[in-house]
Structure formats: structure tokens, C-alpha cells
């Protein structure tokens, strides 16, 4: 059993740790590629219409990989039809099959599913039990080799390989200075992923077809596990808390854990596993993942809006409404801008509520507006690239400001378009 060591100096956000690149369809994960955003459906995969619809929604929101549950014969049979329907819609997002317990049987019985999927996800903690474990794991790897598919070997805190955990606990009792139980379980999780990956290579799956994950639900545990995974292997790594939680808790926990690892150059693809509010869109987790990467300076997806938090000087709610309107507007326009005006995703915007920081923040942005606070003149100067260009007044400020943004994008980024 390998001892844990200090991970050394952080890599920093623009000096990523080297990992073996993996191609999933046309998407590269690892190597020199930017960190990839992915998500997962929560529909019954056997329901072709609802699953296709949700995959399309996640893709439009920016999910570059989408994972679906493959747990029944009906779900496996539906996969080729889902992929075909997406292709007819012009959506070529790679679809990942999530297998637990019976993946070897489903792939054997539904070869069209094995072919249609862009990647398989295998959990070494429940791929099989007892004498069947090694056989069923080997069968899954053999399918990946046969169909030339990459595999994520995803160990999970909630379904840890109990035989391995028991073995490591027994070994720990023999240590002169035993580890605490938490460290032993972290080691079991790491070993489960690494040992399975090395076994897959022995079975003929190239290292450039393997991605690893070792998910837990605690922030500090996740950081410790992935630092050690990164130290001990060159496999591409998928990051994410296994159950981040609902609402702000899930967002904060995921951001706290992943930002530390990403800052150290660890992680090649991420998922923010949020529990959605009843009836809420699944796409929120995609937006959170994008915003995390963008605020860290790792990628750009859509213009970022700096907005005033409000204070006693900003008695009007108009600046809050305008900030929301601007954010919704640029996100809605981004699919079009991405094609017509490449580079627009790097644009910065500011919506400020009074004279204290308003003009200064507005000058720092590509486009900014400083709205009047309490007792200020009812006018709103607009700044473009640090220069005041116009002052807006009256009831139509919001629409005029959106028009200024659209005109700026067309003027500034048109030259970059093909």
C-alpha cells in the first residue's frame, strides 16, 4: 500500500497537470484540452422522447458530454434510437452509458447499444461480487476493446469495493503506526480506481481510452483523494462530488472542492451533481459548471456580468432587474454569437447601481452602465472599453442598453468571424 505524500507545489490554472488525452467522439478530455463540462439525465432512458428532449436541453445549455442511465433491457434498446433522433436534430453530443450490476449482460444482449454509446462508465464497486467480479469486469472491458470505446472507471464512496476495504483495514492493523479509518477508506477508493484501470490495460484497453474518478460527498475528502490520484497516475480525471446537494449548498460544496483541485491543475472534465428543485430544469448544473470554470479564468462560455449587490444608496430595484435581463439576454444570444461572432464569450459587462463604484466598474468592463442611486441625477452613463459613449434616460433604458450590447458585439467581433 502506497504511503500518501505531499502533492507539491500547485500547478496553477494555466499550467495543467499532464494526463493522457482521451477522445470521446469528437471531444478530447485530458492532455492539452480545456476542462470539459458534462451532465447526466434523470429521465427513464427507456422513454426515448423524454430522454432525447433532456439531452438536447443539456447540450443547448453547454453540456459537452451527457451521461444516461442504462439499467434495463428496455433502456439499452432505446439508446440507438435516442442517438439517431439527436443526430436528426443536428446534435452530435457524445452519449455515455452509466452501468451498474448488469452492464455485461446488457451490452451482450444489445450490441447496437454498445455501438451507439460514445463511452461506458463502469463502477468497480458493483460491477460484480465474489467470484463473478473479475469475470464481469473483464467482459465489460472486452466490449470496450471490441467497439473501440473509452471507459470511465468510476469508484464511489457509496458503493466501495468492500472486499478491498476489508483487505486494507487488515493490512492497516499490521502497521507500526496505523492510519485512521478515514485514510484507509480513501486509500481503498483510490486503489479501487487504479487497480481496475491497470487491470483494464492488461485486458487490452489502451491507457488513452481510460478516465478515472473516485467520488465522495465531502469537500476535504474529495480534495485529498484527487491529489493522490493525480500523484499516482497519468490517467485523465473526472471531477465531481457524488452527492453535492440541493440549491446553494450543492453549488457551494462543488465550487469549494473543485476550485481547489482545478487551481492545482488537477481535473480534465467536471460535473456539478446538483439535486434539482422539483420541476426545475436539469440545466442549472451545466450553468454552474461553466460559471465555475469561467470565473477561474480556465474557459469562457458566455459574457460575464458584474453587478452591484446593492446598499442604502440603491433604493431602486431597477439595477437588479437590469442585471438579470442582461445576463439572460447574452446567454440566449450566445448560441448565435458563438457562430457569427467568435470571441464574444470573452466580453465583460457591468451593471452598477450608484455613483460610488459605478463609473469605475463600468470603465473596467467592455460595456458598463452606471445607474442612478438615491438622490442622484436620473441619468445612466454607458461606457465602452473605458470611454463614456452615451447617457441613457427615461423608461427605455433596458432595451437601449441591450441594443448597445448587440451593436458592440457585431462591431467588435465581426472581424473575427470566418
UniProtKB/TrEMBL annotation:
It catalyses: (2E)-4-hydroxy-3-methylbut-2-enyl diphosphate + oxidized [flavodoxin] + H2O + 2 H(+) = 2-C-methyl-D-erythritol 2,4-cyclic diphosphate + reduced [flavodoxin]. It comes from the Bacteria. Keywords: 4Fe-4S, Iron, Iron-sulfur, Isoprene biosynthesis, Metal-binding, Oxidoreductase. Binds 1 [4Fe-4S] cluster. Coiled coil: none annotated. Its cofactor is [4Fe-4S] cluster. Its EC number is 1.17.7.3. It holds the Pfam family GcpE_C. Pathway: Isoprenoid biosynthesis; isopentenyl diphosphate biosynthesis via DXP pathway; isopentenyl diphosphate from 1-deoxy-D-xylulose 5-phosphate: step 5/6. [4Fe-4S] cluster binds at residues 308, 311, 354, 361. Residues 305-406 form the IspG C-terminal domain. It is an enzyme of class 1 (oxidoreductase). GO terms for biological process: isopentenyl diphosphate biosynthetic process, methylerythritol 4-phosphate pathway; terpenoid biosynthetic process. InterPro entries: Dihydropteroate_synth-like_sf, IspG_bac, IspG_bac-typ, IspG_C, IspG_TIM, NO2/SO3_Rdtase_4Fe4S_sf. Gene3D superfamilies: Dihydropteroate synthase-like, Sulfite Reductase Hemoprotein, domain 1. Residues 19-289 form the IspG TIM-barrel domain. One of its GO terms (molecular function) is 4-hydroxy-3-methylbut-2-enyl-diphosphate synthase activity (flavodoxin). Belongs to the IspG family. This is 4-hydroxy-3-methylbut-2-en-1-yl diphosphate synthase (flavodoxin). It comes from Solilutibacter silvestris. The lineage of its organism: Bacteria, Pseudomonadati, Pseudomonadota, Gammaproteobacteria, Lysobacterales.
Amino acid at each position: 500500500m502506497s504511503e500518501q505524500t505531499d502533492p507539491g507545489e500547485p500547478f496553477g490554472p494555466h499550467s495543467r497537470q499532464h494526463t493522457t488525452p482521451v477522445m470521446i467522439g469528437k471531444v478530447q478530455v485530458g492532455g492539452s484540452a480545456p476542462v470539459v463540462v458534462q451532465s447526466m439525465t434523470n429521465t427513464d432512458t427507456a422513454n426515448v422522447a423524454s430522454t432525447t428532449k433532456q439531452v438536447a436541453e443539456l447540450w443547448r445549455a453547454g453540456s459537452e458530454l451527457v451521461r444516461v442511465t442504462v439499467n434495463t433491457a428496455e433502456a439499452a434498446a432505446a439508446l440507438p434510437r435516442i442517438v439517431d433522433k439527436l443526430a436528426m436534430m443536428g446534435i452530435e453530443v457524445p452519449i455515455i452509458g452509466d452501468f451498474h450490476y448488469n452492464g455485461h449482460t446488457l451490452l451482450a444482449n444489445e450490441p447496437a447499444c454498445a455501438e451507439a454509446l460514445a463511452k461506458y462508465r463502469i463502477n468497480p464497486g458493483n460491477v460484480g461480487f465474489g467470484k463473478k467480479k473479475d469475470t464481469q469486469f473483464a467482459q465489460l472491458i472486452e466490449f470496450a476493446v471490441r467497439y473501440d470505446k473509452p471507459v470511465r472507471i468510476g469508484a464511489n464512496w457509496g458503493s466501495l469495493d468492500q472486499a478491498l476495504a476489508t483487505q486494507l483495514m487488515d493490512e492497516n492493523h499490521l502497521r507500526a503506526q496505523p492510519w485512521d479509518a478515514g485514510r484507509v477508506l480513501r486509500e481503498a477508493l483510490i486503489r479501487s480506481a487504479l487497480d481496475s484501470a491497470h487491470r483494464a490495460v492488461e485486458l487490452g484497453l489502451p491507457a488513452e481510452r481510460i478516465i478515472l474518478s473516485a467520488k465522495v460527498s465531502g469537500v476535504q475528502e474529495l480534495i485529498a483523494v484527487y491529489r493522490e490520484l493525480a500523484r499516482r497516475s497519468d490517467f485523465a480525471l473526472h471531477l465531481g462530488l457524488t452527492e453535492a446537494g440541493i440549491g446553494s449548498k450543492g453549488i457551494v460544496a462543488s465550487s469549494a472542492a473543485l476550485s481547489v483541485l482545478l487551481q492545482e491543475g488537477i481535473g480534465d472534465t467536471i460535473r456539478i451533481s446538483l439535486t434539482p428543485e422539483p420541476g426545475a430544469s436539469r440545466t442549472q448544473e451545466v450553468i454552474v459548471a461553466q460559471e465555475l470554470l469561467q470565473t477561474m479564468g480556465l474557459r469562457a462560455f458566455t459574457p460575464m456580468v458584474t453587478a452591484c449587490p446593492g446598499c442604502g444608496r440603491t433604493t431602486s430595484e431597477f439595477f437588479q432587474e437590469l442585471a438579470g435581463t442582461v445576463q439572460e439576454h447574452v446567454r440566449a444570444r450566445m448560441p448565435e454569437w458563438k457562430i457569427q461572432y467568435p470571441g464574444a464569450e470573452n466580453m465583460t459587462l457591468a451593471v452598477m447601481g450608484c455613483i460610488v463604484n459605478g463609473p469605475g466598474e463600468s470603465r473596467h468592463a467592455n460595456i458598463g452602465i452606471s445607474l442612478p442611486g438615491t438622490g442622484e441625477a436620473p441619468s445612466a452613463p454607458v461606457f465602452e472599453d473605458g470611454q463614456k459613449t452615451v447617457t441613457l434616460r427615461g423608461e427605455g433604458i433596458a432595451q437601449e442598453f441591450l441594443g448597445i450590447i448587440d451593436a458592440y458585439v457585431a462591431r467588435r467581433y465581426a472581424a473575427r468571424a470566418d
